Amino acid sequence: MAEPLFLTDLVLAFLLAITGGLLGRRAGRRQAQRGEIRRRPLVLYVTAAIVAARLAVAVLLLATSGWPLVAHRLLLGLPVVVLPLVRALVRPSAVAAHTTAMGAWLSFYLLYVPPGPQDLPVAAGASALVLATTIGTSLLLGDRRSRGGRLARLPWLSGIAAAVTAMALGSLFLVSESATTDWGGGPERAGHSVHAMGHGHDAGDAPMRSVDELTGPRDGIPDARYTLTAAHGTVRLSSGRKIDALTFNGTSPGPELRVEKGQLVEVTLVNKDVTEGVTLHWHGVDVPNAEDGVPGVTQNPVRPGERHVYRFVPDRAGTYWYHTHRDSERSVERGLFGALIVEDGQQGVQQNVFTHLWPGADDQIGAFGTADSAERRAVQAGRPVVLRLINSSKEPHRILLGGAPFRVTAHDGNPIDEPGELKPGTDLFLAAGGRYDVAFTMPDDVVTLRLDTSEIPNEAGLAFSPDGRAEPAALKRGDLFDRLSYGERTGPKPEGGQAYDRDFDLVLDNGFGFSGGSFTFTDTINGRLSPAVPTLMVHEGDRVRMRITARGIIDHPMHLHGHRIRVISRNGGAVTGSTWWTDTLNVAPGESYEIDFTADNPGVWMDHCHNFEHAESGMIMHLAYDDVTTPYHGPAH
């Protein structure tokens, strides 16, 4: 419901800017000719109709999605045009028309370049100043025009609008340029600047620690040892299509790494010829900070001919995955990823299923791993089957499963308590970077798994049958699985009202901003783009709460490194099923989540959208412990 309303509001705001300009132009001409306006022009009524439509959209958003989605509209974005518009309708005048025109422009600007919650008071003050200046200028010009003169006929109000736009965009550029991802290469600690966000503890005189000190065990013989060599290669899909890929050990997905909880794991990364550089990020595993594999934050990228050793001990069983964190948008898409399974005791036939979009000549190619066409597998009737679904793409995927009732036994590596049986045809919506473990008992008939990518036609389908000959069945969309109420709660109930050491509000939005040195329409966090997004500062042991609201038109799978988060509520509705633990939370348009976690893993951690395109354009922030610094520099993605 929220996404079409957001789109409608964007269109209406654009039209409002046009009618506002026409209204201001007409008011200026009438003022120059007669000195006053006594009739209500048609463009004023059109402007009023558009504003009324925007108010209706805001009321619908308030009714369906709640206050966080409309606060900036109702507190500032609409009042700046509604108040002068009412004055213009009640008592038409050149001054009222000019102020309405400027209010229409401000309303447009505040929607397309949305301020973050922390900037709302400043934006309100600036808007009031602009409207006051408009009133004063209009009064002055009206007096001068009544006496004639070339100076009075100049487009002063257009000049004010242009000057305000230039100053506003200039401030955005200065904020973008002054911020830095140099996390303490000098004496300052991470985030200890005007860009820090959060209150409470402070490191004070506590000794500072470097990221390089926060390593996994350096001594001891590893229980599991692997070498992964990154190199250019060719991946052949099941349809016969060839992909100019990047591979680990000559394959993509890379080799499955299967280990046990509590084991010392050692992985040596070797870069053969990937010129962009490579790292390894252990997605969902809360490794020590130095093992996290984020270039520019926890290490330098591994260049061709170089190697890097990671050592860590996984403390939770489940389905995880690894991928490069260097040039992720292109390198992961081209194949630098693989499964990491920490043995969890699930029995039966097990299969890792990556949902992936490969780069094609004209469009992306949807596939299960390398299966972009119908694939068949024989499974004896009566045997338990576990599918470990992993979304390695930048977009969320809808997965269709038909032919047998099933259970979702784990989410992002976290077991679900008392998972109930779901009827065949229940669809799974899997966040980018997210995982579901799906279990069923093989029937006498065929079980079909399909990837539904509505915008990208694909033939991907997996068919399980006793003889292995059955074709994947055609499946239609069904009801979506809802994690909020699934399973039975066996652990403690999240206490949303408890006292927290840190509270953060994150607003995910669409708007114009400076990214990569250019002004573009992109995705923002609290009105900012990396590296200007404030750092979330915490102290070890803090209980942290976040409220995350998506005011834009695109899904954002938010991934906090190094920590497992617990979902307390969605759109005000509490989690009633099994405790919802996750590491990659998809926040869809119009959704608002309350989450919490314990700051128990010191370091400087990325918190970013796992749609790599959004992250590359600036949807990145960091969670930094107040006694940790890092010597690394450069791009963090």
Task: Offer a concise description of the structure.
The chain is an alpha+beta fold and 637 residues long.
User: Which word captures the global form?
Assistant: globular
The DSSP helix count reads 9
Sheet having the most strands: 7 strands, mixed
Instruction: Write down the overall mean pLDDT.
Output: 87
Poorly predicted spans? 145-154, 179-196
Q: C-alpha Rg, in Å?
A: 28 Å
Would you count the extended β strands for me? Answer: 34
What's the number of structural domains? Answer: 4
What do these coordinates show?
The protein is of the alpha+beta class and 637 residues long. It has nine helices and 34 strands. The strands form seven sheets. Strands 22, 23, 25, 27, 28, 29 and 31 form a seven-stranded mixed beta sheet that branches. Strands 1-24-33-32-26-30 form a six-stranded mixed beta sheet. The chain has a six-stranded mixed beta sheet with strand order 12-11-14-19-16-17, with no helix packed on it. The chain starts with a helix and ends in an 8-residue tail after the last strand.
